[in-house]
Amino acid sequence: MARTRLGLLAGALALAVSGVAGAASASEQADFERRDWSFYGIFGTYDRAGAQRGFQVYTENCSSCHGLKLVAYRGLTGIGFSAAEVKAIAAQFEVTDGPDDEGEMFERPARPSDRFVSPFANDNAARAANNGALPPDLSLIVKARTNGPDYVYALLNGYAEAPDDHIVADGMSYNPVFVGGEIAMPPPLFEDGVEYADGTAASVEQMAEDVVSFLHWAAEPTLEERKRVGIKVMLFLIILSGLFIAVKRKVWKDVH
Questions:
Q1: Cα gap 240→28, rounded to integer Å
Q2: What torsion do the CA atoms of 145, 148, 151, 157 make, to the nearest 10 degrees?
Q3: In this structure, are residues 81 and 54 in contact, taking their beta carbons and an 8 Å threshold?
Q4: How many C-beta neighbours within 10 Å does residue 4 have?
Q5: How far apart are alpha carbons 192 and 205 in whole angstroms?
Q6: Who's near 201: CB < 8 A, 6+ residues apart?
Q7: What are the backbone dihedrals phi and psi of residue 183, each rounded to the nearest 5 degrees, phi first?
Q8: Do the strands 173-174 and 94-97 form a parallel or antiparallel pair, or are they unpaired?
Q9: What are the backbone dihedrals phi and psi of residue 79, each rounded to the nearest 5 degrees, phi first?
Q10: Cβ(114)–Cβ(68) below 8 Å
């Protein structure tokens, strides 16, 4: 357990240091609007419909470059997918397994217990396919920045035409939210870029909101359980404190 926690902390630290493309510290971030997310606050919960739409946005717009190597397919039941749906989602991907009885590795359909299949075999393959830039894994991306959900939402909506006095380098896109105003990732979202099954209009803002909800769940799938336990603990402590006060008054009532 300790090693697992240390591994997660190390992963978060690495993302915080490298950022989306090796950027600077959180204090150097551009200013952006703060939003009131459903998962904020002591009673915050995930919008499961939004998170499922966000999973669709990730699958159709992000997964060709960005992995979720810390997330297992079976975890998708946490945002409302049934066990059968999760099994069908996982089976769309191939994973390397083995060795078999003859000592050979083999390919098989992914299972719910498998983690999300990475889009590239290794980091060098990822760089080769992206002009030398390494697309970050998104498992903890919303934890890598101060006000991470707001930052990622603003970044996805921040692509614009560069001002006349700003010459954008070859292979880069202008995005004032990103440190330096230029980012190697081209705009990932476009109007009606996906067709939502529930009929929700797929504006860039809506898709950004949905994918941030999904990515926050991916980074903190136990958030709701943690908050429920925290509320129970606080209620227990309040009741216990009341009992202590009552006992103290009973014991010392005749002492002047």
A1: 45
A2: 130
A3: no
A4: 8
A5: 11
A6: none
A7: -140, 145
A8: unpaired
A9: -110, 20
A10: no
- Note the pLDDT tens digit of each residue in 1-56: 444 443 433 343 333 434 443 333 444 556 788 899 999 999 999 999 999 999 99
CB 54 within 8 A of CB 152: no
What is the total residue count of the chain?
256
Amino acid letter, residue 77: T
Q: Tokens 């894994």, residue?
A: 137
Determine phi and psi for 146, rounding to 5 degrees.
Answer: -65, 135
Is residue 167 a contact partner of residue 174, using CB atoms and an 8 Å limit?
A: no
3 state DSSP class of 17: helix
HSE-up of residue 11 (Cα within 13 Å, Cβ side) = 18
In this predicted model, what pLDDT tens digit does every residue of 170-202 receive, in sequence order? 989 999 999 889 999 999 999 999 999 999 999
Q: Output the pTM of the full model.
A: 0.81
Reference 51, options 213, 208, 163, 182; nearest CA is: 213
Identify residue 127 by its one-letter amino acid code.
R
Helix boundaries (H) for 195-256: 204-219, 223-252
For residues 150 and 58, give the distance between their C-alpha atoms in angstroms, rounded to a whole number.
17
Q: Which two tokens stand for residue 48?
A: 């499961």
Bridge-based pairing of strands 94-97 and 106-109 is: antiparallel
Structure tokens given for 123: 């980091």
In terms of Cβ atoms closer than 10 Å to its own Cβ (0-12, 13-18, 19+), residue 96 is exposed
**Ramachandran area for residue 81 (φ above 0: left; ψ -120 to 50: alpha; else beta):** beta
**Token reading at 82:** 């049934």
